[in-house]
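Today's session is about reading a structure prediction critically. Students often jump straight to the picture, but the first step is always the sequence itself: look for stretches that repeat, for charged clusters, for runs of hydrophobic residues. Only then move on to the predicted structure, which in these notes is written as discrete structure tokens rather than atom positions. Here is the chain we will use throughout the hour.
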Amino acid sequence: MTLDQIKETLKGPDYDFLGTDGHLGENIMILTLGGSHAYGTSTDTSDLDIRGCALNRKREILTGEKFEQVSDEQTDTVIYSFNKLIGLLSGCNPNTIELLGNRPEHYLYLSEAGRELLDKAHMFLSKRAVYTFGGYANQQLRRLENKSARLVGQAENEQHILKTIEHACYDWKARYFPMPEDAVRLYTDRAVCEELESEIFMDITLRHYPLRDYAGLWSEMQSVVRSYARTGKRNQNAIGHGKLGKHMMHLIRLYMMCLDILEQERIVTYREKEHDLLMEIRAGKYLDGAGQPIPEFFEMVDEYERRLEYAGENTSLPEQPDEEEIRDFVASVNERVVRGEIGN
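Below is the predicted structure for this chain, in token form.
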């Protein structure tokens, strides 16, 4: 679809909810493209994904009434509430940080507050990107290995799980009761369980630690382990050629985007410079005659992993986003809503 065709499509009855839903209408701050159209990797058969952000209404701000997002499955549209999106952006969530790096023409609507949000995108950038993008990419790689016929030993799979947990643990200190750096040590060793070759072990040294916070830590680690078990069950059979190539392409795109954040302190969603490489990957250039990834692809992934590790160690970005600037901006926007200056 061309951009003009996309704009015409949004005028159709399927998208009437953008104007009629009480949470949207005049509350919309940003309306933009998502998915392959935003990345510059769309084909003639690509779905249209619409993403955006809407102001929280006065009642929600003053009473704490919950509104997180409006999702329309029929049109693949997701509009986040302002307050929820701020939280996701602060965590450098890959699926939402990309909304701040689209091409100018891909913003189908921008309110004044929406433009302010784009202008302040840098305040959300931090070293968290190493762990959010890296953790997501690591899970994507494991899924890719499951979807392909690549033989990955149990010990290597256990390393994948450990790495994903380590990424998830990065901001524990910001969300849970403080603990010494060496209070929780995770590592792999020869398995005690007879069914495994290798497994993850824990060395824990905690005193007078809040039980509920510890339960939260444990729950997060358990969730990662369970997610890998579900992945294995879902992907016992190899998936189709075209879909596997698309999956491979998005894995590399994640690395590219994270490197831009760490090295250039920029959010670049549309991959113009790497377009040809990404489309070659999607088209199957790195698949063999049986439709499986060739070794050169995994060598490419290894190289991006090394680059990401180096960039994370040498970036000038702060450990955490600029929380004070973020809070000031949220207060400014929400105050204008309460005063009746913006939204409805």
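Discussion point for the tutorial: The chain has a mean pLDDT of 89.
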